[in-house]
Amino acid sequence: MPSPNKYGHVIASGLPMRDAAWLLKLSEQSKSLAVSMEQCAELSRVGIHRFASGVQNNTNTFCRNKSNTQSTWLLLVRAAVTLEQQLPFGFDATRVLFDLLVECEQSFDLRSFQAIRCVELALWSESRLRSIPASVGDWSQSVRDRLTEATRTKPLPPTDQARSADVACDCRYCGQLVAFLADPGQSTATPRARKEIRTHVEDVIRRNDLDVTAKTIRSGTPHGLAMTKTQASY
After folding, report:
1. pLDDT tens digits for 29-41?
2. Cβ distance 52 to 69 under 8 Å?
3. Residue 225: enclosing H or E segment and its boundaries?
4. pTM given for the model
C-alpha cells in the first residue's frame, strides 16, 4: 500500500474499473459529450499511467483480483486504440498498455489472457473502428512470436506433487485448495462440505485451469470432493 501523506491519509492508487469504462465512452462519444479529442487524450493518458503504476507496484487498490485488473486493462486498451485512430499523430499511451503485459505477465498470462485477447481486440477493432490499428497488429505479432518461442522446447514435468495455485478467492475452502495444490507430497485429497461449497471449489478449479480433477463422492455426510492432481499444463 502507498505510504500515508503528511495528514496520515493513504491515497488510493490504481484506477477504478468504472473510470476505465468512462474513458472508453469518452473516446467514442467525445463530440456529444462536448469534450475535445485533445482533452480526451490527456484524460486517458493520465488514467492509463495511473493504472499501469498501480499494477507495476502491486498497489492497484481498485483491482482486488486478477480478473478486475484484466477487465480494466481491456477497457483502457479499447479507449486507447479508439483515440489512436482519431488523433492525427496517434496516441502514445497505447504502448504503455502493451508494454505492461510483458512487464507484468504474472497478471496477464501469455496463454490464457494475451493469446485470447489479441484475437478479440482485432475483431473488436474491425467491427467498431473498421480497421485494425498498427499497434494492435504489432502486439498480435509479438504474442505469436512469444508463443512460438515458449512452445519451442517441451516443458519438463514436475518433480513432485506441488502444483501452481493462482487463485484469487480467499475463502476458507479455496485456502484449503491452495494448500493442497502447494503440498509437494500430497497427490489426492477428499474434503467434505455442503453442495454449494463443493460447486464453488469446482468452479474455481475450472475457471483457473488448475492441474487437478474433482469428482463428488456421494457416500457419507456431507458428500466429499475427491481431488486428484494432474500434469495437464505440462
Report:
1. 987 888 888 999 9
2. no
3. strand 224-229
4. 0.66
Per-residue pLDDT tens digits for 80-93: 999 998 888 888 89
Query: Rounded distance, CA 120 to CA 76, Å?
Result: 14
Radius of gyration of the chain (CA): 22
Q: What is the largest CA-CA distance in the chain?
A: 69
- Measuring CA to CA, which residue among 13, 92, 103 is closest to residue 51? 13
Least confident stretch, 31-35, 64-68, 69-73, 173-177: 64-68
Whether 16 has a pLDDT exceeding 50, the answer reads yes
Q: Using CB atoms within 10 A of its CB, is residue 106 exposed (0-12), middle (13-18) or buried (19+)?
A: exposed
Decide if 135 contacts 81 (C-beta within 8 A): yes
Residue 63 has pLDDT above 80, yes or no: no
Q: In this structure, is the dihedral angle defined by the CA atoms of residues 82, 85, 86 and 87, taken in order, positive or negative? A: positive
Residue 22 exposed, middle or buried by CB count within 10 Å (0-12, 13-18, 19+): middle
Closest CA to 118 of 89, 147, 84, 88: 147
